[in-house]
Design a protein that fits this description.
The complex is a heterodimer of chains A (284) and B (129).
Chain A lengths: L18 H20 L2 H9 L2 H21 L8 H25 L9 H20 L1 H5 L5 H4 L5 H18 L5 H9 L2 H21 L5 H6 L7 H22 L9 H25 L1
Helix pairs in contact in A: 1-4, 1-5, 2-5, 3-4, 3-5, 3-8, 4-5, 8-12, 8-13, 9-13, 10-12, 10-13, 12-13
Chain B lengths: L2 H30 L10 E11 L2 E10 L5 E9 L11 E8 L4 E8 L9 E8 L2
Antiparallel strand pairs in B: 1-2, 2-5, 3-4, 3-6
The chains are: A mainly alpha (284), B alpha+beta (129).
Chain lengths: 284, 129
């Protein structure tokens, strides 16, 4: 029988990780991300109004997000594709259990809610929770040399992935709320344009002006999409795409909706998606 | 025992729990959602509290949805039991929306209520969203 041995640290260091500490760190990261969404009532209702196939697709995308995040951060050291796939299953599975526990804590009684609604609620909540789980080291400051080892990956791909994941996380807590509809109805075209301007400025300021992590490297990076405004515009375009997909997922895109109203809603949700995307890129 | 073996066991145990949870959720959901009866709300109303003062009766009630579909414009009638008329004038209260698995509370104030009146709450109508 093969000897069980702990996963060695990448780079040849034979010392072993404390797996329990890694799991605790992951669960803490998960809670940081889960709590704001858990307290949003419209997110609970998503389970009743969203078709099953959309929720299974969202859950599968959540697994894909976890794989990407485990490459960039993770809740423990990992260095091979197999490690990333294993850690992502651990992240999503344990996050599902954490989500179920948190839902019970806030009063979702499993004996009064239909089981399919309960499973859907857990699956929806598990995705942002798993994002937190997989970002635990970057969020909570666990020791890692991963960022340094990631320089072989293209910077564009890293920025692309983190913009989408950060946008999904922050956008998901906003897109299902009725406030989006109210803001879109009330806003004038001038305010809609201001949404665009403020989204671009905040994104630019967070990455290139606020003196946060990696600012000097980003300013010195070459390539159209790595120039400050190139990256800002690319990430804003992605954030608007994420906003559109989230509005579709949450059932706000209905037949017969006027194009100007649709555009306003995308711009309204686009602002938190942009901020989430910028914060996500800071973690890479 | 070798600490490394324990670490590896924790790692593999967490992985096994994770994979099992994911599979159980996806397979369980697909199995529960297989074609069958259409979704419908299952509503019930109950009186939570009654206080009576100077001919006025304050009735607090709760509507609960244990079905598989939400209900809109749920009309709750506060009045006497059909088989025990005690002179309590019926009053309808509309609850805008009751999601699946959730409950909503309401309060009505009844005037000129006989002292011996015993109110009940009944669902008399609702709409599907």
């Amino acid at each position: 029988m093969a000897e069980l041995s702990a996963r060695p640290r990448p780079g040849g260091d034979a010392s072993e990780q404390d797996e329990l500490a890694c799991l605790v760190r992951g669960i803490c990261g998960a809670l940081v991300f889960a709590v704001p969404i858990l307290y949003t009532m419209e997110v609970w209702w998503l389970a009743h109004s969203t078709p099953t196939w959309k929720i299974v697709l969202f859950y599968a995308l959540g697994y894909a997000f976890c794989v990407g995040l485990n490459v960039f951060s993770g809740f423990r050291e990992a260095d091979t594709l197999r490690d990333y796939l294993e850690d992502s299953a651990t992240s999503l599975g344990i996050s599902s259990l954490v989500s179920a526990l948190m839902l019970w804590l806030i009063g979702m009684d499993p004996f009064t809610i239909p089981p399919q609604s309960l499973i859907k609620q857990v699956m929806i909540l598990a995705v942002p929770t798993a994002i937190g789980f997989s970002l635990a080291r970057a969020l909570l400051g666990g020791k890692s040399d991963k960022q340094a080892r990631l320089q072989g990956l293209t910077a564009d791909l890293a920025d692309f992935g983190m913009t989408v994941i950060g946008g999904v996380f922050l956008g998901l807590s906003v897109a299902p709320t009725e406030g989006v509809m109210a803001i879109a109805i009330q806003s004038s075209w001038l305010q809609a344009l201001a949404f665009v301007a403020i989204s671009l400025l905040v994104s630019y300021a967070l990455i290139f002006m606020a003196d946060l992590s990696g600012q000097s490297n980003r300013l010195a990076a070459q390539g159209i999409l790595q120039s400050p405004w190139g990256e800002t515009l690319m990430s804003y375009g992605l954030a608007l795409l994420v906003s559109f997909v989230l509005l579709w997922f949450t059932g706000y895109l209905v037949e017969g909706m006027s194009t100007p109203h649709l555009l306003r809603m995308i711009l309204v949700v686009g602002l938190p998606c942009t901020i989430g995307g910028a914060a996500g890129r800071l973690l890479v | 025992m070798n600490d490394g073996r324990w670490q590896r066991r924790i790692e593999m145990g967490a992985f096994a729990v994770g994979v099992t949870t994911i599979l159980a959720m996806v397979v369980g959901l697909l199995w529960l959602e297989r074609p069958g009866e259409p979704d419908a709300p299952r509503l019930s109303a109950e009186i939570l509290d009654v206080t009576q003062e100077e001919g006025q009766m304050r009735v607090e009630f709760r509507v609960q949805n244990r079905g598989t579909a939400a209900a809109e414009n749920v009309i709750v009638r506060i009045g006497s039991r059909d088989d025990a008329p005690d002179g309590l004038p019926p009053l309808d209260q509309t609850i805008a929306y009751v999601p699946v698995g959730m409950s909503r509370r309401g309060i009505v104030i009844l005037h000129d209520v006989p002292q011996e009146a015993r109110p009940t709450a009944r669902i008399v109508g609702y709409l599907l969203p």
